[in-house]
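pasting for ref
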Amino acid sequence: MKSCILLSFFLFLNPGWLPAQKAASPAFPDDWTGTWSGTLHIYGPKGLANSVQMHLEIYPIDTSKEGRYTFGIVYGSKEEDWRPYELVPVAPERGLWKVDEKNSIVIEGFLYGPKFVSHFTVMNNRLMCTYEKQDAETLLFEVYSGLDKPISTTGNAEHGGEKIPEVNTYPLSVFQRAVLKKQP
């Protein structure tokens, strides 16, 4: 049992050891292309705090020799908040891509089955963003964020003759969710 837990823990911390992903349906990002729209709901500890229209635009870039795609995010309207990001292949066979924000920020993203995930810190906050292709017409977008400072630390002790690792727990202060539908 202990070796199984240690192996799972090791693989979790070292995704480079995982084998290349087998081709899965839907293919990423080809089967994700299009304009996806819906309402982004923003939740805090007391419930729904705000809602805003959201669009995600994924299209191949004709001039790209590297296989880049647009990965544009619009909150409200393009006049209000348009983020013309690009999706850049790094090692697609391993599910590794980058989101180039076109402003010196480039964030790695990882494809796991139908879910594209990025996990990063900015301005002392941890964020995990997920995009999940649920079916041909639906993408689920979620963001989890909170301070990058543990609210508790446990473990780091001996228990029953076994060395227990230290575990930090981080706060979650905002959750965002949008069910995006493919536009004709």
